[in-house]
Design a protein that fits this description.
144 residues, two-stranded parallel ribbon
Length: 144
Amino acid sequence: MSEESLPDDTGPEHGDVRPGYDDGAARPEHADALPEYAERVLDVAERIPPGRVMTYGDVAEWLEEGGPRQVGRVMALYGGAIPWWRVVRADGVLLPGHELEALDSYRAEGTPLKEASRAAEGHLPRVDMKRARWDGGERADGHT
C-alpha cells in the first residue's frame, strides 16, 4: 500500500479532530482526489445501518487492510459528509469534543447506549458495544 493511498497512522482517538473538518494538517497535492483507501473506508462506514456501529478496527478488518489508526485518520480527514458517528472507539466512548453531536445522532437513530454512572467524568453515556456493534454480515441495502 502506498503512502498516497493510506494516510499516516494518527486518528481521532488521539486528538480532538472533528471528522471531515480541516485540522490544519497538510493535505495531499491532489486534495480533491480521494485516495483509494479512503474511498473504501468511507464506503464501509456508509453501509453501517442506522442505530449500529463498527469500531475503527472493525472497518480495517472488513477491508483486510490498514488498522484502526489508518481508519481513524481517514474518518478525521474525509468523514464529515457521511454518518461518522457510526465508526467508534472499541470502548464505546464518544468522540472527544463532539460528544453532544454524536449523542444527538445516536438518540435519533436509536443506537443502544450505556448510561454513565454519576462517578463518570462528564456523565456522558457510551455506546453499548454488545448491542450496537454491527459485524457487516447483514448487508445494509437502502440505508440512509
